[in-house]
Prior knowledge:
The chain crosses the membrane at residues 522-543, 558-580, 609-627, 633-655, 667-686, 733-751. Residues 31-89 are annotated as: Disordered. By secondary structure, the protein is of the alpha/beta class. The chain is 51% helix and 10% strand.
Amino acid sequence: MEKPNSSTSSLLRTKSDQFVxxxxxxxxxxxxxxSSSHEVAASAVGGGGPEGxxxxxxxxxxxxxxxxxxxGRSSGHIGKxxxxxxxxxxxxxxxxxxxxxxxxxxxxxxASLGFSFTFTGFTVPPDEIADMKPYSDEDIxxxxxxxxxxxxxxxxxxxxxxxxxxxDVTYKVVLKGIRTTLEKEILNGINGSVDxxxxxxxxxxxxxxxxxxLSLLGGRIREPTIGGSITYNDQPYSKYLKSRIGFVTQDxxxxxxxxxxxxxxxxxxxxxxxxxxxQEKDQRAIDVICELGLERCQDxxxxxxxxxxVSGGERKRVCIGNExxxxxxxxxxxxxxxxxxxxxxxxxxxxxxxxxxAGKTVVTTIHQPSSRLFPxxxxxxxxxxxxxxxxxxxxxxxxxxxxxxxxxxxxxNPAEFMLDLANGNVTDITVPSExxxxxxxxxxxxxxxxxxxxxxxxxxxxxxxxxxRVVENEKxxxxxxxxxxEELKSKVCSTKREWGANWCEQYSIxxxxxxxxxxxxxxxxxxxxxxxxxxxxxxxxxxxxxxNNPEKLQDQAGLLFFISVFWGFFPVFTAIFTFPxxxxxxxxxxxxxxxxxxxxxxxxxxxxxxxxxxxxxxFLLVVYFMAGLRMNVGSFFLTVVTVFLCIIAAQGLGxxxxxxxxDLKKATTLASVTxxxxxxxxGYFVKNVPVxxxxxxYLSFNYHTYKLLLKVQYEHISHSINGVRIGDGYKEVGVLxxxxxxxxxxxxxxxxxMELH
Length: 757
């Protein structure tokens, strides 16, 4: 740049003048002939004099060639240039000819700011023009916008293409009061469609019916209050589709103590076809982990409320992996980006695009997408109070609302603009003349002064506008047959279920999964301390109380009764929580046909047995020898077996109460009353029970356990201890075994009833 002289004209030169001269020189250089394919003319950048410094501009192609020819350059420098090129190309995409005239810059400025004005008079240097040309995905070595290395796209084998159509969908829920019954309308006349390879977004404010519509389309709600038509390849819903549909719920329902790899491996073994071996299924799980970018946390526990685990974005990707592992034709997701930052949300939406590109149909609800997320949806449904406000291409939504007189007055995220409209908020939005006239006619004088239409009027106007302008044309399109073969249609209407594993395999997988999940609970320091502390206190209170005198054994009989009560009370209140706590997981996995209910029930109840045997053995090792009970190997073994019978019988009662009520407060209350009754009728506190209520003792597992313990310890001394007659013990064993089976059968039937309901 030239040094300033002392003349007045030189002092009056401004930076703007210098910039204009510089741009003019750059334009002249750009228009001059190029000597070779790797060089362009040089032009001055400074004050324009011959003394000023000059810069050599290279074309986009030549700069790529230089980068390739010099591999020794630092990766940081390359990454920086790539980031600059990507950001510039994302801001402006226009031709070189437009740049030379300055018109494109005027359009870009007015479009980005939301105003209409022109700003011309300068051009851009050719090196920046090269930088502004949009790069393809292959040119970008890193996924800079998401902040993570670019992962490979999902490579899945071909799947059955499913065209989803729905017409005039309505849904009502029945609210039953004490005296009256009301019907609440959730959805009213919803139309739409989505084809393989497309991503359909369901958008609307809270309470607009997004999740209800998603559940209806995914076959998760089957009630008589549903109206309209929902077809899959022009066929109605069938059970066969369960194996073709992936459904990611809004709440991340996962086992907290399993790792990411274990979670996906168990899902693969249960859901993938039987034709695949165990090794192939496990490899599919590893492939999904790599495809979703979960390698770093694959050996980390999922975590929960009280367990540290993976992050929210990783947890959401695990939920998506749980569904895409089966290569579904239809994938439904309920607000997959809620609670995530914009970068993580963008990564998840990109993953959905990769899934759709593999020929799958993707439908997702979205609450408030960022400005980067919204353009990535192919189709959009906008809901408001259960009514349809817009259905069509997401890129044409703003054009439609402009056509009905609703446009933003300021630069605004399209998603925010449409959510404001759906809520009836027209702040910073143009109000159509028709709506203004309606406000003047219907509103009072006070409301006219506010000059803002009520939200109800805005909603009514939007619904009417869509019904009069769009609905009929969309219905005609939906009535046209889907362009697919009859063979594909017949596959959808098949009613045959396809289990990923036979009953024995399902039982084995669920058994080991349950064992891994609950080993942390059983071997927690709190539970072990509780059992050992109780055993120590009992041992000290009944220290060496053994005797061969029947009259001196009454105190020790109290110890035996306490053992029967403790190991009856403890398992009941542990088992009560089993099914209510796993209800969400059970509903989710059963809705996806992952396994038979009988396999789950047997595996769930038997996977606890090895763990349930360890703590009683530790308990008896302390109490038995401290209290001086019968020193005989056979007696000790029979005592352990008796306590174990009591535990599994009491567990059955807890499972039955929990499965029947499925409410922890009600179940805990009922269990407290039941256990107290069984304890009082156990034969220790009351010897002479009235005849009309004496049958209660035969329902008490405490009573039968107490009699068995007396027989094991004192049959060689006396036939009656503390007023309780000692028999041969076969009847007591038979009753306890009947309780083990009977209570569990009741629990299974209760689960079956819940599943059907």
